[in-house]
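User: I'm new to structure prediction. If I give you an amino acid sequence, what do you actually give back? Let's try with this one:
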Amino acid sequence: DGPEEIRVALAGSRICAHTGLEVAGRSFAEISPGEEWPSRRWRMLEAAARPCGNLVIVRDRQTQGDGVRFEVVTLPLDPDAPGASRRLVSHIAVLGGVYEPPAKERTAAIPPAESFRFLDLGAGVPESGGP
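Assistant: Good question. You get back a string of structure tokens that encode the predicted 3D arrangement of the chain. For your 131 residues, that looks like this:
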């Protein structure tokens, strides 16, 4: 919708089961920890505008046990309709170990990135690290 209003268009049922909330239709700012929002917004806007992909690893320590690491690969998708916005499509995979259900008292937010990098799809990647 704009630089301050990036919405989740669709989310798989496993994401909803893991986070404990429906994220489809929500603003990405709402489900990001406040200190993470400026860098997440910049990364998404760069991926859509350049275009380029990105790879993020997050560790969710709010699960039962030692936490779970997730690999998120996001790629731009050009629209078929003229004038429509480019979309970012993410695929999320659990890295190793056994997924355990989230703790009942978990915070309803996507955990901070453990690592991040842009993926060059032919149009280059941003030179600076952003905010």
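You can read the tokens as a compact description of the fold. Here is one thing that stands out. The CA atoms of residues 113 and 128 lie 17 Å apart.
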